[in-house]
Known about the structure:
Blueprint: E1 2-8, E2 20-25, E3 31-32, E4 35-36, E5 38-41, E6 46-54, E7 60-71, E8 84-88, E9 94-100, E10 110-121, E11 125-134, E12 137-146, E13 150-154, E14 160-166, E15 169-175, E16 181-186, E17 189-194, E18 197-207, E19 210-216, E20 224-225, E21 230-234, E22 240-250, E23 260-265, E24 278-281, E25 284-290, E26 293-299, E27 305-310, E28 319-322, E29 326-330, E30 336-341, E31 347-351, E32 356-359, H1 385-390, E33 395-398, E34 405-408, H2 431-464
Parallel strand pairs: 5-9
Antiparallel strand pairs: 1-2, 1-8, 3-4, 5-6, 6-7, 9-10, 10-11, 11-12, 12-13, 13-14, 14-15, 15-16, 16-17, 17-18, 18-19, 20-22, 21-22, 22-23, 24-25, 25-26, 26-27, 27-28, 28-29, 29-30, 30-31, 31-32, 33-34
Amino acid sequence: xxxxxxxxxxxxxxxxxxxxxxxxDIEELRTLNGISDTLIVDKDxxxxxxxxxxxEYGVLSVLPSPVKEKLTDLNITLFEGENYLYLLNAEGNAIxxxxxxxxxxxxNFPTKIEMYSAINQSAEKVLIEVNKKVDADEFATYLEVxxxxxxxxxxxxxxxxxxxxxxxxxxxxxxxxxxxxLMALNQNGQQFFENNxxxxxxxxxxxxxxxxxxxxxxxxYGEDIQNGMAWGLSTPDGKYWPILYIxxxxxxxxxxxxxxxxLVLNSCNLRLDGTLSGIICGGVKLYTASALGGVAFxxxxxxENLITVMPQTEINFQEINFLDKISFxxxxxxxxxxxxxxxxxxNCLLSDDGYGIFKSxxxxxxxxxxxxxxxxxxxxxxxxAIDEIMNTDIYNFNYKGKKERKIGAVIGKNxxxxxxxxxxxKKSVNLYNMISLSYKAIQEQQxxxxxxxxxIKKLKExxxx
Length: 465
């Protein structure tokens, strides 16, 4: 049988006008179940390795050991650069050739390439196999078509791709050498398997009338989920670092809503940009307060402000607002002030430097609980209240940074101020003590007045005597 060996600069699907053909007349090359006779064209010798034999009755069988048949050498000339070598109109046969690579170090560098292809067809299936060997490296592609599936594998790896019917759906699946499922792709999405059990899937999910592109793991009602979902990073050493993931998740019972779990954000800040973006929890919304920044908690149903926290800016200091009319803010002088009321209307001010003001307030009531059940060590105050009052000088003064003139006591070594009216830290006046001491002084003065009135009465009686 005559075979034509073609050497070309282009592939067989697009041959060039410069292709070279070499004819060789040998007995037919045969293939059986992936075993093939091989034509070898080496730089020194041309031969056929026979692995199969044909009996007188036309039965093909495998030889006990390969037989080498030496042929007339072929003088095959290659093109400079890339060459394509193939047998013309001889699918299912094999060819092996050595060729020379020209380089800067040597003019002759021999490398041996062996190639063979085979097509086997039976009533059950069609097999297409292509093999190539470069020195000690072997490469192969295997295609099987049968009534149930199309199977493809390559480079002798144990895994293969197969087109088949899986769960009544046309699917593209990956299986390992033992036919265990690894992955499937079909109209519902992509599924991942471990030990032939579904581990996770990506696809379109429908909830009522809403559709979602979803990533999910299988679960059962009332089950604690061990396998989770995560978004993260992979490093070159093969490690995976989860950044956003779900953990400790409990799937609710079918008739109950007892879902629970944790959404973890690891090593990252959650940043909400834009004045309308936020987080809703129950009836409260947390969102960006204004263009100046800050965070606001509002009543989602009414839109009313609950709490606003503002950072320091070029025009404002830190400030916390409650229910629109209560503010706690930092002053330019470094003090902090609590304001109840509107900034430019009726309000009350109290600062941490002891300054306080109640402006435009129609009524004010101060209560300090005084029932005996909240007090202990109860004794009659025996000191002379008038003496303590007389030991306290009253001054006019301004709080630093304030314009309003005040009247009151001054605590300091150069000023008279009774210890009886001081706070525990000796830095401010205890108004309750001060009022109580004044009350006691009035009682003492009343006794003096009554005593004088009695003396005046007696003098009058004597003078009228």
